[in-house]
């Protein structure tokens, strides 16, 4: 049994005070500010929990004190009501037998703590944060099913492994529609010695899952229970070798900034296991120097904003996007080892398609379902000799003028794949230049006069 001490103030009051003071807030401080923001929003605390503790002189404690104290000093609040920062074993032990906790937990211990007393917890209404701690491993929380405002591991210098959380199913606010809580996150951010994370296999919903800036992280969990997530990010994890285990994930999206990002992971070789994914707000796989395999996107139907696969010099084969019917922006760029494009046969319309610097691709085919595109650019492909994949393209540009640009493809000789494109179907510009072997009027004579043509074997007539 426990009593509730309800805090009615909101942390936003502290934010307003900081803004009014004119103080500069660095990116570092801003990240910490929002990590702590959920800690003071309408929550409660067990009556027998943490005794009042003097905030120490460490940087972490100074930050905790600075961020929590403004709300704690509101008239009517007692210092005891603010003690949700866990730093000692005695504070952990106070949770033995507690099943539900109506506040946020911030764990910032400077030594290894035994977290087994937390195994009785089933619900945390606020957030669970591990911040600036020296804990080498986090094990337990095996009965925890739901956390209202997410689970965070931020800047823990000693942390090497995280295991547990096997019963966790939801990161979402209690009693609300899951999709309305944009703060429900699972975050691993700048834990410099973290090697492996396991568990979480039953997590079915989170607004955001983020692994960023973990220098030694080699393995991540298999999120086989995950069905829906608004944002999924893997950024700047130089030792991470594989991203897989999302076999039941059906949708990535829900907000203007949401989507799937895999960026700047130096040793990453494989992205796979997204066979159930049908909808995504965006997909950005960018600048992963060792990535040679992307597979498992055969069910993907709609990408609301962009599908960008860029600057992957080791990638030799693209996944099969055979069911993709709609994308706003498609970019394939800087794929130096790519020898062929398997095709997007069901893609009917796109705002923009850019095919640039595809190092070993000799033919561009597989866009025969495409009917309309606002802008199409094919450029800087060193061994491209033919394009035969746009047989049904009839419109370039729409209500907004667009363009057709075929530029700097030194080996391009044949572009016979545009039989249905006529001047009446072009609302915008046509620019064909610096294709050393291309007989422009022989292939695009039906579009003459075009807007710009120079540097081809034979140039088209221009306006």
Key attributes of the depicted protein:
4-stranded parallel beta sheet; mainly beta; Leucine-rich repeat, LRR (right-handed beta-alpha superhelix); disordered N terminus; 18-stranded parallel beta sheet; 463 residues
Summarize the structure.
With 463 residues, this protein is mostly beta strands.
How are the SSEs ordered, and which strands pair?
Blueprint: H1 12-21, H2 27-37, H3 59-72, E1 85-86, H4 89-93, E2 100-101, E3 105-107, E4 123-124, E5 128-131, E6 137-140, E7 146-147, E8 151-154, E9 161-164, E10 170-171, E11 185-189, E12 196-197, E13 205-212, E14 228-235, E15 242-243, E16 251-252, E17 259-263, E18 270-271, E19 279-286, E20 293-294, E21 302-310, E22 326-335, E23 349-358, E24 363-364, E25 372-379, E26 386-387, E27 395-396, E28 402-407, E29 428-433, H5 440-444, E30 452-454
Parallel strand pairs: 1-3, 2-4, 3-5, 4-7, 5-8, 6-9, 7-10, 8-11, 9-12, 11-13, 13-14, 14-16, 14-17, 15-18, 16-19, 17-19, 18-20, 19-21, 21-22, 22-23, 23-25, 24-26, 25-27, 25-28, 28-29, 29-30
Helix pairs in contact: 2-3
Q: Which CATH architecture?
A: Alpha-Beta Horseshoe
Low-confidence stretches: 1-83, 174-180
Largest sheet: 18 strands, parallel
SS-based class = mainly beta
- Which fold does the CATH topology refer to? Leucine-rich repeat, LRR (right-handed beta-alpha superhelix)
């Amino acid at each position: 049994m426990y009593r509730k001490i309800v805090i009615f103030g909101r942390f936003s009051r502290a934010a307003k005070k900081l803004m009014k003071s004119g103080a500069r807030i660095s990116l570092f401080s801003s990240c910490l500010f929002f990590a702590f923001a959920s800690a003071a929003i309408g929550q409660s605390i067990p009556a027998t929990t943490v005794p009042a503790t003097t905030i120490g002189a460490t940087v972490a404690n100074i930050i905790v004190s600075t961020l929590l104290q403004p709300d704690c000093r509101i008239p009517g609040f007692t210092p005891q009501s603010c003690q949700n920062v866990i730093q000692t074993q005695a504070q952990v032990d106070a949770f033995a037998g507690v099943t539900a906790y109506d506040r946020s937990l911030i764990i910032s211990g400077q030594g290894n703590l035994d977290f087994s007393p937390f195994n009785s917890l089933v619900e945390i209404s606020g957030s669970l944060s591990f911040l600036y701690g020296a804990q080498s491993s986090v094990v337990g929380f095996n009965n925890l099913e739901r956390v209202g405002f997410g689970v965070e591991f931020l800047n823990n210098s000693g942390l090497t492994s995280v295991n547990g959380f096997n019963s966790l199913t939801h990161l979402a606010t209690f009693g609300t529609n899951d999709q309305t809580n944009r703060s429900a996150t699972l975050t691993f951010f700048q834990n410099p010695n973290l090697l492996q994370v396991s568990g979480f296999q039953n997590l079915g919903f989170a607004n955001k899952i983020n692994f960023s800036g973990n220098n030694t992280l080699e393995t991540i969990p298999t999120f086989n229970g995950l069905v829906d997530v608004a944002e999924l990010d893997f950024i700047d994890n130089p030792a991470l070798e594989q991203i897989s285990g999302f076999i039941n994930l059906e949708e990535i999206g829900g907000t203007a900034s949401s989507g799937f990002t895999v960026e700047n992971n130096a040793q990453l070789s494989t992205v796979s296991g997204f066979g159930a994914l049908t909808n995504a707000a965006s997909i950005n796989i960018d600048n992963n120097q060792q990535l040679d395999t992307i597979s498992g996107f055969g069910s993907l139907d709609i990408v609301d904003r962009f599908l960008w696969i860029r600057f992957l010099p080791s990638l030799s084969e693209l996944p099969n996007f055979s069911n993709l019917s709609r994308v706003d922006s498609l970019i394939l760029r800087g794929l130096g080892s790519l020898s062929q494009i398997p095709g997007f046969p069901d893609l009917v319309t796109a705002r923009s398609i850019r095919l640039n610097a595809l190092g070993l691709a000799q033919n561009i085919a597989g866009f025969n379902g495409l009917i309309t595109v606002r802008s199409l650019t094919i450029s800087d492909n060193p061994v491209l000799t033919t394009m035969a994949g746009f047989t049904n393209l009839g419109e370039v540009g729409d209500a907004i003028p667009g363009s057709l640009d075929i530029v700097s493809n030194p080996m391009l000789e044949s572009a016979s794949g545009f039989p249905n494109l006529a001047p009446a179907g072009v609302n915008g510009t046509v620019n064909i230049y610096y294709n050393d072997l291309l007989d422009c009027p022989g292939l695009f004579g039906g579009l003459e006069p075009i807007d710009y043509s120079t540097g081809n074997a034979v140039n088209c007539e221009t306006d």
